[in-house]
Amino acid sequence: MHRRDPWPCLAARFAAKEAVFKALQTGVTAWQEVEVRGGGDRPVQIALTGATRQIARARGVANVLLSIAHDRGRAVAFATALGGEVS
């Protein structure tokens, strides 16, 4: 599905990536190493790759939970890094 105005969704995904970096306490490593998957009628998930994934593993992060929203020109995202066994 194509949106008439994709900017609110893009802003929300940008906020999501920033929230992930903050949850991992890494600072920004590489934007392309954090993939935001899903959305719309599907749950949002995060996929980490490269150095960002290695940093997460080294810190014992097994999963990152994410919530994102946008409305009236604002975007917000919350990320929580969870420990446990890394797959």
Topology at a glance:
Blueprint: H1 7-24, E1 34-39, E2 42-48, H2 50-58, E3 61-71, E4 74-83
Antiparallel strand pairs: 1-2, 3-4
Organism: Desulfoscipio geothermicus DSM 3669
Keywords: Transferase
GO molecular function, one term: magnesium ion binding
Beta-strand share of residues? 35-45%
Number of domains: 1
Question: For the CA atoms, what is the radius of gyration?
Answer: 13 Å
Largest sheet: 2 strands, antiparallel
CATH architecture: Alpha-Beta Complex
Order of helices and strands: HEEHEE
Based on secondary structure, the structural category is alpha+beta
Q: Say which CATH homologous superfamily is assigned.
A: 4'-phosphopantetheinyl transferase domain
How far is it from the N-terminal to the C-terminal residue, by CA? 32 Å
Shape: elongated
Determine the number of helices (DSSP H or I, runs of at least 4 residues): 2
Give the CATH class. Answer: Alpha Beta
Which consecutive residue ranges, at least 5 long each, have pLDDT under 50? none
The strand count comes to 4
CATH-assigned fold name: Ribosomal Protein L22, Chain A
Spatially, the strands of the biggest sheet line up as: 1-2
